[in-house]
Amino acid sequence: MAQAFFGGVHPNDMKAATNEKAIEQLQAPAQVVIPMSMHFGAPCTPTVSKGDYVKLGQKIGEFKGLGAPIHASVSGTVAAVEPRPYSMGGKVMSVVIDNDFKDDLSEEVHAPADPDALSVEEMVEMVKQAGIVGMGGATFPTHTKISSGIGKVDTVIINGAECEPYITGDHRAMLERPAEIIGGCCYLAKMFGVSKVVIGVEDNKKNGIEALNKVIAEQKAPVVVESLRCRYPQGGEKQLCQAITGKQVPPGGLPANIGCAVFNINTTIAIYHAIKDGMPVVRKVVTVSGSGVVEPKNLECPIGTPVSLLFDACGGLKDETFKLIAGGPMMGMAQYTADIPVAKGTGAILAFCEKEEQTVEHPQCIRCGKCVAACPVHLEPLFMYQYAEKGMVDELNEAHIMDCMECGACAYACPARMHLTHMFKTGKQLVKNKMAADRAAAEAKKAAEAKKEA
Q1: Are 410 and 371 in contact, with CB atoms under 8 Å apart?
Q2: Can you tell me whether residue 274 is helix, strand or coil?
């Protein structure tokens, strides 16, 4: 039985524009721009140079430390290796490939003789080499999550909540690719050594639940689908863990602290293809929607496809469009250009018309406390806002600002239209800057003392 998590809000889901539209395959562009930063951790180092010929699925970026490799999404010639704009702001080193439209498959891509005979270590290595990350937007390297959870995790959860308004890519995947989802679940069950995998799906996707249950019954798969009541941010991994297990992730902790591991629907599909076919992550399903889009759609395209081409495939943008967002309306980031590429974590691209602008230039807090009631992690946003505005770093730490998941529930509930989420991003950066400065000062002091003793 699904449990309730604390706080949350109930925004209009706005999914009607795309939830009945099948995923369309977008024709590959003449040129792709593949960012070397599509994961949590340091950017990859390009392993190709201008003029090199690359094949589909070939590794073109290698990571060190925490990260995941990056692969060519088309075959063709490398036109440039240079910084280019991307969705997180600013520019990042990118590999630009001129598509030859041959889709020559790399020799690096090969299916195992018998996927079911693979050991756990071999499967984890295949997930690693496939460059799989959390494709719901968090982009945490999947192989790290699996390897660190083996022996500690007793509940594997697949996140099919898709609670953000407008986004319907996961819902369509449930309807069109249920066998791939269940196949990925079976591989995860084997890797973690659990008897079953739980898929959490909000109850506004009943046909998706039925499609999954049909495949589970046919395959007698060790998978259970849990219907969840609609409430944002149900798809937050800590909230999903609480909804399904009744356990709460401790402050500053991870789902692994309560024996859980959470994976997105499209991440699960990627795991299936990595182990069964040896195919790395080279394509992404993106919901293109919003009042500014002429014909909203769910599109699947090669990673590195310019967002402007996705809008073109949807009939373009309306003249009164005023804002573009990469991601959902609650947690996505506003963009200054459509010349950014689709990345592994790009779940949606939204465009909005001016009539929907609800911001206030100089908002004033009215002390109603609605933000406190809405916060799913028991924080006090009204005080955090004041501390961040005044640069009070110690107070921000005491208020546990680093536990903020930036879900936007507080900003949505605020009748004064306070710019809460934006201010918390700023406040987190203040805390990080202070930590870095303190660390540098401590190292300098240690070096000075060592020099004095010498």
Answers
A1: yes
A2: helix
Residue 447 burial (10 A CB sphere; 0-12, 13-18, 19+): exposed
**Does the bond joining 296 to the residue before it have cis omega, within 30 degrees of 0?**
no
Identify residue 7 by its one-letter amino acid code. Answer: G
Based on C-alpha coordinates, what's the Rg of the chain? 22
Q: What residue ranges in 40-149 does DSSP mark as E strands?
A: 45-46, 53-54, 59-62, 70-71, 76-85, 91-99
In this predicted structure, what is the pLDDT of residue 344? 94
Neighbouring residues of 100: CB distance < 8 A, sequence distance ≥ 6: 74, 75, 76, 77
Outline where DSSP puts E strands in 107-211.
Answer: 155-160, 197-202
Quick check: 79 and 98 in contact, CB under 8 A?
yes
DSSP string covering 27-63, please?
PPPSEEEEES--SSSSPPEE---TT-EE-BT-EEEE-
pLDDT of residue 13: 92
- Check residue 448 and give its pLDDT: 86
CB atoms under 10 Å from CB of 1, counted, come to: 6
Q: Supply the pLDDT for residue 3.
A: 64
What stretches in the chain show pLDDT beneath 70?
1-3, 454
Q: Which amino acid is at 157?
A: I
